Amino acid sequence: MGASRAAVDGGFVSKDHQVGQTGTTVRPALYIACGISGAVQHRAGMEESAKIIAINSDPNAPIFSVAHYGIVGDLNQIIPKMIKSLRERPQGE
Fold first, then answer.
1. Which of 7, 26, 32, 61 could form a disulfide linkage to 56, CB 3.0–4.6 angstroms apart?
2. Half-sphere exposure (CA, 13 Å, Cβ side) for 19?
3. Closest CA relative to residue 67, chosen from 34, 19, 41
4. How close are the terminal C-alpha atoms of the chain, in Å?
C-alpha cells in the first residue's frame, strides 16, 4: 500500500508508505490511485507502473494523464462496488 504526501502529513500512514519524489518509487503490475490528484511529485514515484487505474471525483485531475483507465466519481462509492464485483465473480475468470 502506498500513500500521498497529504495522507502522510495527515497522520493516516507512516512516511515509509509515501509514494513520490520525496518518498518511494514503485512499479507494480497494477497501481490503483484512489483519490490521488496526481501532482507531479506523486506521479514521479508511480508513473512507470505497468497498469494504472485512477479514481478521482475531479474529471480534470492530473492523475488521468498517466492512467491507463480512469473512473470519475467518489471513491467511497466506487471502491465498495469494485470489491463486491470481484467477490461475486466466479473463480477462474
1. 61
2. 25
3. 34
4. 25
Give one word for 68, left, alpha or beta, with left for phi > 0 and alpha for psi -120 to 50. alpha
- pLDDT, tens digit, for every residue of 14-59? 999 999 998 899 999 999 999 999 999 999 999 999 999 999 999 9
Q: From residue 79, give the alpha-carbon distance in Å to each of 22, 32, 48, 72.
A: 27, 10, 23, 12
Residue 91 has pLDDT above 80, yes or no: no
On whether the CB atoms of residues 30 and 49 are closer than 8 A, the answer is: yes
Indicate the residue type of 41: Q
- Show the cell assigned to 16: 515509509
- Beta strands per DSSP E along 6-77: 30-34, 51-56, 69-72
CA angle 58, 60, 63 (to 5 degrees): 90
Q: For the chain, what's the residue count?
A: 93
Q: Which residue has the cell 479514481?
A: 55
Place of cell 514515484: 45
